[in-house]
Amino acid sequence: MSKHLSMDIRVPVELDNPSIKRIESLCIQCGECQKVCREKISVSHHYDLTKTMDTAICIHCGQCVNVCPTGALVEKQDWMKVHDVIDSHKKRVVAITSPSVRVGLGEAFGMESGSFVEKKMVAALRALGVDVVFDTTFAADLTIMEEASELIDRITHHKPLPQFTSCCPAWVKFAETYYPELLANISSSKSPISMMAPTIKTWYAKKEGIDPKDLYLVAITPCTAKKFEIKREEMCSASLYHQSETYPDCDCVVTTKELANWMKAENLDMNHLEESDYDSLMPKGSGAGLIFGNSGGVMEAAIRTAYYFLTNQQPPENLLKLEAVRGEDGIREATVTINDLNINVAIIYGTENVRKFLPQLKEKHYDFVEVMTCPNGCIGGGGQPKHIGENISDITQKRSESLYQGDEEMVLRTSHKNPAIQKIYEEFYSQPLSDLSKKLLHTSYLVRDDLHEDPSHYDIIQPEKEETETKIRYKCSICGYIYEGDLTLEGDDFTCPLCGVSKDLFEKI
Ligand code: SF4
Question: Phi/psi at 390 (nearest 5 deg)?
Fold first, then answer.
């Protein structure tokens, strides 16, 4: 007999799920969890429990938590672990805060949706006993430096395209589970949290003269899937760097809701806190890092920096408010032209929409695809304050506008112009995609092939790859751009899409 109820009744949740738990006594079997998981996330009803040895598949996005009307499904409450570490006074506790928390936390204290409470959130963490507070937007800028460099490398060296973003651990697990043939297309750049964590346990630890084992790092996020991500075996790069016994890069993840619970348990009221600033050794990131919380934000941030990498000039005003990639639709597309290079991009949220989008790869060439699992991106994350019975898209829109406004109010709008990012490359990482950055800031993925799904959809990208392997290639002798195909068929007005020289300067390779 199955240990789980039928998936027509509710989603199955394993006891060892690192992100989510069910309180049985509160479950009224209304089916809201299986509905969102089936219709928006596309996991429930997309596998057969009898073929997975009665083991539930979960990508940990927490959307079931957000729709559960009784609170039977909740994220695992890990804030008590941080509380205990603080009480023990044995470690220096460092908190890092994701962009979306500052536009969600106020709602748990009766504030208007989207209220921007960054400085009060920092003050709250200090009042709770956290020693150091950094902003994860710093590492969002680092992610953009690596991810935009990787995109240009893929385009110029004819590596697998489109490049899919990798910041969302739920999407990554979805791809590992259902579309393993896409893994070569997923950016190897880690998410901002997973870049910030090893940077803190290497560069920051050395600067401060502290043993990294004496640091306890907690990520404050809108995301229940980060609780899963930090437990992935690969996420221990700092200990590999130090050649010591294995320890995690990030020790704990606490969601926006958990932070509110923790504050309430300590009688801290948001409305009565004095504001506080982040610590300065790893200062706040740029506006580009801030908009990571919005669907389309990672894309827009990456385009700003890709423009600079390709032209050596700051992006024009229209790229600082790239309306073409903003919006509410679950699948959006745009073509961004930089010099003569047309970059076809797509922005998707909701993994059900990934299933709808993928067949388009056979019809059209895309260079860059952003995927976020939650509605409208991380601002709609499973760890954000819940609003049962309200229109969630009205709420996510207000949170989204608040992040875009925060970006517009900043002087620093691009990741590559962030002086602190320039400094960390000078002092430590050398340059994007360097050997050290590949060790600490990049990762690899697993094929989770225990699903026995119909493999007929596993050939989405493969045929294109086979076709390009037989093509003739030419290399631009000025910038190294690789042209695939028969260049003699191009007219005399053909120029290199990157540096603009004529086709005479291409050599066959
Ligand atoms: Fe987490 Fe954001 Fe992905 Fe949701 S969209 S699972 S909040 S990373």
Answer: -105, 165
Which of 32, 107, 146, 147 is an active site residue?
A: 147
Give per-residue pLDDT as tens, 357-373: 999 999 999 999 999 99
147 is catalytic: yes
What's the gap in Å between 490 CA and the centre of ligand 1? Answer: 44
Q: Which amino acid is at 402?
A: S
469 catalytically annotated: no
Which amino acids bring their CB within 6 angstroms of ligand 1?
61, 168, 170, 222-223, 225, 372-374, 377-378, 381
Assess contact for 109 and 271: CB atoms under 8 A. yes
Domains annotated for the chain, with CATH where assigned, are: 20-75 (3.30.70), 79-138+193-272 (3.40.50.1780), 144-189+293-412+428-435 (3.40.950.10), 473-508 (2.20.28.10)
Distance from C-alpha of 382 to C-alpha of 375, rounded to nearest angstrom: 9
Ligand 1 centre distance from Cα of residue 222 (Å): 7
194 neighbors 253 (Cβ within 8 angstroms): no
Determine the atom of ligand 1 nearest the C-alpha atom of 59: 6
Give me the helix-helix angle, 256-265 and 79-88, nearest 10°.
50
**What is the model's pLDDT at position 470?**
52
Query: Which of 234, 333, 453, 490 is labelled catalytic?
Result: 234
Among residues 42, 44, 149, 187, the one annotated as catalytic is: 187
Mutate which of 40, 41, 58, 61 to test ligand 1's pocket (most atoms within 8 Å of Cβ)?
A: 61
Q: 33 an active-site residue?
A: no
How far is residue 386 from each of residues 66, 125, 486, measured CA to CA in Å? 6, 21, 56
282/301 Cα distance (integer angstroms): 19
| Alpha-carbon distances of 178 from 45, 168, 327, 441, 446, rounded to whole Å | 13, 16, 27, 25, 11
- Residue ranges for the chain with pLDDT beneath 70: 449-471, 479-480, 498
pLDDT digits (tens, 9 = 90+) for 417-460: 999 999 999 999 999 999 999 999 999 999 986 554 444 444 44
The tokens of 48 are what?
A: 């057969």
pTM of the model: 0.88
Give the residue from 398, 366, 363, 369 showing the smallest Cα distance to 384: 398
According to the model, what pLDDT value does residue 480 have?
A: 64
